[in-house]
Amino acid sequence: MLDGLKGGVNAEYPKYLKEKGKVEIKSFFDRLGKSDLDSQLRLIDEHKRKIDFVYETAKNDKKKKGELGYKLSLMAGIALLIILA
Predict the structure, then answer these.
(1) Long-range contacts of the stretch 62-69 (C-beta < 8 A, 24+)
(2) pTM of whole model > 0.70?
(3) Per-residue pLDDT tens digits for 37-65
(4) Contacts from 54-61 at CB under 8 Å and sequence distance 24+?
(5) CA-CA distance, 42 to 50, in Å (whole number)?
(6) How far from the centroid of its chain's Cα atoms is residue 16's Cα?
């Protein structure tokens, strides 16, 4: 993934990455190495918090949608049993 980012603006990003994620990654790498140590550590911490937030949000969405999928398939199975009976 990082090899593709070396291409700059025209870099190829993974297909699953949304536009906002592409902007965040580009912003991070554009700012990396251009200031003092304290600023770099704050930059890394800031992006780590953003990544953690996105991860937790995605995890919660997956849990909700996974439960919904299970319930819908269970209801479809029951409906099919009723129709065939």
Answers:
(1) none
(2) no
(3) 999 999 999 999 988 998 898 888 888 88
(4) 54/21
(5) 12
(6) 8
* Mean pLDDT of all residues in 13-39: 86
Q: Please tell me whether residue 17 adopts helix, strand or coil conformation.
A: coil
| 28 backbone dihedrals φ, ψ, rounded to 5° | -60, -50
Question: What's the CA gap between 3 and 27, in Å, rounded?
Answer: 16
Cβ contacts of 1 within 8 Å, gap of 6 or more = 13, 14
Mean pLDDT (the chain) is 83
The residues, any chain, with a CB within 8 Å of residue 20's CB and separated by 6 or more, are none
Q: How many helices (H) and strands (E) does the chain have?
A: 3, 0
How far apart are the two ends of the chain, measured CA to CA in Å?
53
